[in-house]
Amino acid sequence: MLGQIVYQAGARPRLERAQAGGLRVLRAELDPEGFWGERRLRRAARLLARAGAVRVLVPRGFDRWEALERQGLRRVDPLPFLRAHAAVLAVAALRKAGQDPARCAVALRGERAGRDLERAAHQLCALVREVCVSAPRGGEALSGTLRWEYGVAVRPDFAEVPAAVRFDPGTWAAGGAVLDLFPPSPCLGPVGVSLPGLEAGDGDPLCLLAALWEAGKVDGGALEFT
Questions:
Q1: Per DSSP, which regions of 31-104 are E strands?
Q2: How far, in Å, CA of 149 to CA of 125, rounded?
Q3: What is the C-alpha to C-alpha distance for residues 184 and 65, in angstroms, rounded to an integer?
Q4: Rounded (10°) CA dihedral 154, 157, 163, 165
Q5: Residue 74: what are its φ and ψ, rounded to 5°?
Q6: Which of 18, 82, 168, 195 is buried deepest, with most CB atoms within 10 A?
Q7: pLDDT reported for residue 153
C-alpha cells in the first residue's frame, strides 16, 4: 500500500483513504511545525506502517526520513522511471539547448551495458545521428549490435558530445548536457518531466509520476519532457 504525508497547519496525525493523481493512498495529514512537530511525524509513520504502507509520498524538500525509516517506510524511488525514459530525456536535453537531435550524438556511460543502458541505446538509434556507448563491460558488443541491427553510426565517446547520460557515478562527466541517472539523487540538468493535468499539491511531482508509471497509469506518450 502506498502512503502519503501531507503537511497541514494545525492537523494532528490521522489516516484517511484518499487519491493522489488517481492512485489510492493512505494519507496522513500533520502539522510539522512547533515543539510537537517531530512527535506528530513519528506518530504518522507508526500509523502508516501499522496500516500496511511500505512506501510513502512526501512533501517537496522532505528531509526527515529517519523517523519514517525507523518504521520500515521508504521513499518512492523515481530512478527506474527515469532510466526507462533515458533516451527521451537525452533528446529533450538536446532540444532544450536548441539542437536538432537528428544531427547530434548522445553518449551513454555506465560501468557495464546493463538493461537500462541497452534499452536507451536501442531507442536512441531512431532519434539521433550517433550513439556513443561507453561501458567497459559489454559496451563493445552492444555497439556491434547497434551497427548490425540499425546501421547506426556508433562512435567513441568524446568530451564535446552534445548530450550524455550517466548510469553510474564513476563515469565521465564531460559533455554539453549531462544527465545523471544514478542514486542517491538523479540530476536531469535542464530537463523537466510532467504530465498535463496532474496535480501534485505540495508533494514531489517526480515521485508521484514514478508511482503512477509503476502502477501502469501513465501512458508514455502523454508525458512531456521539456
A1: 55-57, 74-75
A2: 10
A3: 13
A4: 90
A5: -135, 165
A6: 82
A7: 85
pTM of the predicted model over 0.90? yes
What sign does the CA torsion over 118, 213, 168, 100 have? positive
Check if the beta carbon of residue 26 is closer than 8 Å to that of residue 4: yes
Is residue 103 a contact partner of residue 151, using CB atoms and an 8 Å limit? no
For residue 92, the one-letter residue type is A
C-alpha–C-alpha distance, residues 84 and 115, integer Å:
10
**In this structure, which amino acid lies at residue 132?**
C
- Between CA 139 and CA 4 the distance in angstroms is 40
Average pLDDT over residues 163-183: 97
Set of cell numbers at residue 71: 518504521
For 13-33, write each residue's pLDDT tens digit: 899 999 999 899 999 999 999
68 in Cβ contact with 56 (< 8 Å): yes
Ramachandran area for residue 122 (φ above 0: left; ψ -120 to 50: alpha; else beta): alpha
Type of residue at 10: G
Give residue-wise pLDDT tens across range 81-111: 999 999 999 999 999 999 999 999 999 999 9
